[in-house]
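Entry 14. Structure prediction run on the chain below.
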Amino acid sequence: MPTSYVGIGSNLGERDATIRDALALLAADPDLEVEAISAIRETEPVGMVDQPRFLNAAIRLTTELAPRQLLERLLAVEQQLGRVRRGERYGPRTIDLDLLLYGDEIVDEPGLCLPHPRLAERRFVLEPLAELDPGLVVPGLGPVQGLLAGLQ
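Output returned:
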């Protein structure tokens, strides 16, 4: 089964509780096997900076679902936890689940790009990935450790 990595973040409401709820919903899904969860970090917002700070983490999971099916499950969890997709991109949100990597696949389809297109630009994504797998290689981009070093 392919190993996938999912970014998780929240900056509205009870951030800790919302992240715990998202993790519980993912762990309860019979088609997903959550293998590891990184430490949760408090981070500054990116893009639209006039908003509350985020809590961010990453999850390593395995699944036999195809990438698009996995993305649909993640979006369903977001919706179940009150995420409403409207307004400004990069704005405040109750929960954000981003499919970052799916095995070694490179995908560029409407609504689904793998690896996640901004993964290499974001410390709040790279640090949890490096924590989960220090030897991780991001398809088409290189080792996560090298990407992280490139931000310093």
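The two ends are 34 Å apart (CA to CA).
Filed with the rest of this week's runs.
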